[in-house]
Write a structure and sequence with these properties.
About 15% of the residues lie in helices and about 35% in strands. The chain contains four helices and 13 strands. It has helices at about 10-15, 100-105, 190-195, 205-215, and strands spanning about 5, 20-25, 30-35, 40-50, 55-70, 85-90, 105-110, 115-120, 125-130, 140-150, 160-170, 180-185, 220-225. The longest helix is centred in the last third of the chain and has 15 residues, at about 205-215.
């Protein structure tokens, strides 16, 4: 799974790496992003859509801020149940919370790296930082959704909540000793396919990005980090320093 991650790049740097056309929202650098925090998502957006949701006309790649923890549009609200921060790639098409988003509402979640905890022989947990190196970034395959707050007036711009979840899969062989699952990593090739809402998301698409994810995961770096990352209140670049 993925329960904490890091974004150590500015919005401008993220835009360059992922070929973003327009930065809609900027978020600060963070070394300890937790569930329900606002995170950046990259989407390919069309200004018009057909009845089936496919894009019409020019496409713009945009960087938005979204709540980490997907809120289905039929939900009573973001406080209902545990936040949906992860979606299993094996069952995502079967889950009412996610299946509609797979079809047309797919995104990329930029991350410098993420934390995972390894259970030691004595029962203690050692955190690891899995990352793309100082200069690189990982792109997690994500889904997004818009939820309308019925308690707010139609002229209130905050009545729409944008939220996201990160897909996970069985770990790449090189990462399996850290955890049994890892985020679904997008490569340069699968990023464009995943973000293209003209392509209706189906089992074939999920299989393609899942297979490619292992190639990206096989090149990921990792090292042990200090236990302080386990505290949500902990912040600062020292959290990703190797011990």
């Amino acid at each position: 799974m993925c329960g904490r991650f890091v974004v150590a790049k500015t919005a401008g740097q993220i835009a360059t790496i992922f070929e973003v056309d327009e930065i809609i929202d900027e978020l600060p650098i963070s070394y300890n992003i937790a569930p329900t925090n606002r995170v950046g998502i990259v989407v390919d957006r069309a200004f018009e859509r057909s009845e089936d949701g496919s894009p019409i006309g020019e496409i713009s790649r945009e960087l938005h801020a979204a709540r980490w923890g997907l809120v289905p549009r039929w939900s009573k609200g973001p406080g209902e149940g545990a936040p949906l921060i992860n979606a299993r790639i094996e069952t995502v098409l079967e889950k009412p919370s996610f299946k509609e988003s797979v079809h047309r509402r797919r995104c990329l979640v930029p991350a410098s790296g993420y934390y995972e905890w390894v259970v030691q022989a004595d029962g203690s947990k050692q955190p690891y930082y899995v990352n793309a190196g100082d200069e690189g970034m990982l792109g997690f395959a994500g889904l997004y959704e818009w939820w309308l707050d019925p308690t707010k007036s139609t002229d209130d711009p905050t009545r729409w909540l944008l939220s996201t979840t990160i897909l996970t899969k069985p770990s790449a062989p090189e990462l399996s000793h850290i955890h049994e699952r890892n985020p679904v990593f997008l490569s340069g090739e699968t990023m464009d396919i995943w973000l293209d809402s003209a392509i209706e998301g189906d089992l074939d698409l999920l299989r393609a990005i899942g297979q490619d994810s292992d190639l990206v995961g096989g090149e990921a770096l990792f090292h042990k980090v200090g236990a302080s990352v386990g505290k949500v209140s902990s912040a600062g670049a020292e959290l990703i320093s190797a011990i």
